[in-house]
Every structure is written in C-alpha cells, then in structure tokens.
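Format notes (please read before filing issues)

Several people have asked whether sequences and structure tokens are stored in separate files. They are not. Every record keeps both together, in the order shown below: the sequence lines, then the token lines. Line labels are part of the format and must not be stripped during preprocessing.
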Amino acid sequence: AVVSTQSGHYGRDSHCLLRSPALMPSVEVSFDEKSNLLQRLAMMTVEETELFLYPRLYNLNTSTLGNEGMPPIIRSSYDRIRESGAHLLDNGLVLILWVGANTPSKWLQEVMGVTVLDQVDPTVGNLQPFDNPTSIRIRGIIDEIRVKRKQHLRLNVVRQKDKTEHIFMQFLVEDKTELGMNYTDFLCSVHREIRNILS
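Then the structure lines:
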C-alpha cells in the first residue's frame, strides 16, 4: 500500500496511519487480526489505502438522502454525528450502520422494521427489504458500495450507547483516544516540530 502525497491529505493520512488498528497498540485487536490487517494493507491500491485510513461516513437522515447518487459525507468524528439519525461508515473492509438513540420511529419502522431502538437487531448482517422509498434508497446505497468492493461487505449494526459502540468509534479517526491525540492536536504538534527544526 502507498499513501499518495498527491492527494492533498498527507498530514491527515499520516495521522490516520498512526491511528490504524493494524499499528496502534490495543488489547481489543489480537496479534492475528493485526497481522491480517497488515497483509491486506500491503496489497491495497492508493485509493483503497486512503479509504481504509480515512473511512467515509455517510449521513442517512431522510432529509439528506436525496433520490440518487451517494448521500453527504461528513468528517470522521463523533462530534459530527447526530443522535436523531443514522450514519453509514465504509472503510473498504467493513460496513457499519450506526443508529442514534433519538432516531425517529418512522425511520426505524421504514428501514429496520421496528419502532424503538431497543428492538433493532445488531446481528442482522443485512437490511430486510421493505416497500417504501427510504428502505429502497438506503439498501440501494449499501448495494452501490458493495459493488465497488472486491469482497462482500457484511453490514454491522451498532446502536448508540450499546457496549459494542466502541467498534464504530475506533474508526472515527479525527477523535482523541486514550492512546492518541485528535487530528487537530496532531497537526499542531507537527507544525511545532517543523518550526523547531527550522528555527
């Protein structure tokens, strides 16, 4: 894998690389999993590497879905998501549908077939087809992503405030963790180092 210096995101990609579960110390990622990620990373194209390092986070709220094309992409930070809706994360290897605690019951009914968040089954692996525009649109978005990938991506559903939410949050690469600074602080530290070198 090669991180493109032509992308205009060299600093961002450097930060994300340091945040990658393939390199970052973590008790939640086994040695075998790290080894597998490193092997996959070594075989990725530039485009695949950049997607892996900085996942796409789509806003799936009804007001932003539109009728065609992909929905809006927001920055990969917990501060950017809203409890009153759902978001889809794609890093080329996994798909995660995060459902906010205050997601409208109408959206839950149309997309998940339930009326309250507690009834959402996080183990479904795929969305059931329902005959309404919102369900058809969101399943179409997921299908469009899957068509572009070399392997079938299983859909992982994460409910806000569930114990499994950390799985989703580890891919929000702009945020601070116990082991690493957030993206803004990282850039500031790099700029300080450059100034020290040049002074």
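For reference, the curators noted about this record: DSSP finds eight helices and five strands in the chain. Helices lie at 10-19, 31-43, 46-53, 62-65, 105-112, 133-147, 165-169, 183-198.
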